[in-house]
Amino acid sequence: MTESAEPLELIHLADGTQSVVVRVLSTQPGYYDAEIVVRSDFVNAKVRTDFDADDVDEWGDLLDAVEDDDADIEQDEDDVFAGNWPREGGAAYLTFVADDPYVVEVHDAPGTQICVRVPLDLKPDWIADSRARLAAVRRALGI
């Protein structure tokens, strides 16, 4: 990872009022230390997490699944897509809920076991922006 003035952001979901961002802090071969940052008028918080190259690919898979779910015009309104990133386990993680509005839950597990729910009114091009950010991170990390 090249050093820069700004941390490398893998995920940046924002609606102008609230945001959830995942920033890469440091790298070791196959392992990435990161922080999840939540900003809103109600709560501002950071929690550490970690992920690996497979998790980077899984973020791309989650974007694919959300795009497919959004394109399904005959979707049952009670059937809402939700996915975790990175995999639920020993570090903090996100649960992304493709509802109206989109919701990102930030889980500090197994730490404090606090969960913060952040509703986001994402713009229509958020998936394209997320894919561009994902490609940039893959290049920077050599994945």
Task: Describe this structure as you would to a colleague.
- The protein is of the alpha+beta class and 143 residues long.
- The chain has helices at residues 53-71, 126-141, and strands at 8-14, 19-28, 31-39, 44-51, 81-85, 93-98, 102-107, 115-120.
- A 4-stranded antiparallel beta sheet has the order 1-2-3-4. Strands 5-6-7-8 form a 4-stranded antiparallel beta sheet, with helices on one face.
- β5 (81-85) and β6 form a beta hairpin.
- α1 runs antiparallel to α2.
- The mean pLDDT is 89.
Sheet with most strands: strand arrangement: 1-2-3-4
Q: How many DSSP H or I helices? A: 2
Mean pLDDT rating: 89
The overall strand count is 8
How are helices and strands ordered from N to C?
Answer: EEEEHEEEEH
What is the percent of helical residues? 10-25%
Largest sheet: 4 strands, antiparallel
Report the principal-axis shape: globular
Strand content: 35-45%
Classify the secondary structure makeup into a structural class. alpha+beta
The span between the termini is 11 Å
Taking pLDDT < 50 over at least 5 consecutive residues as the criterion, the unreliable ranges are: none
Radius of gyration: 15 Å
